[in-house]
Design brief:
single chain, alpha+beta, two-stranded parallel sheet, 39% strand
C-alpha cells in the first residue's frame, strides 16, 4: 500500500508517518509541509447526527497540480 498526501512537519505528522511506515505503507509520495498536519474531529449526537470540525492545514498544499499515478 502507498500513501499520497501532505503532512505537517509537526508532532502529528511524525506520528502519522511512523504509524504508516510501521504498517508497511510506502511514503514515497508524501509531501512535508510547513503548515500543521490536517485534523478532523467528528461529533456524534445522541440521535446519531454527525458534525465535522476540520482544520485543513497541510492538506491545503496537497497535490494542487495533477500528478501521474504509477
Amino acid at each position: 500500500a502507498a500513501f499520497w498526501g501532505s503532512i505537517g512537519s509537526d508532532e502529528a505528522g511524525d506520528r502519522i508517518s511512523e504509524c504508516l511506515r510501521s504498517a508497511g505503507v510506502q511514503l514515497g509520495h508524501v509531501r512535508i509541509s510547513s503548515l500543521p498536519s490536517a485534523a478532523t474531529v467528528v461529533l456524534v449526537g445522541a440521535g446519531g447526527q454527525r458534525s465535522f470540525l476540520h482544520a485543513p492545514g497541510a492538506s491545503l498544499e496537497a497535490y494542487t497540480q495533477p500528478e501521474p499515478v504509477p
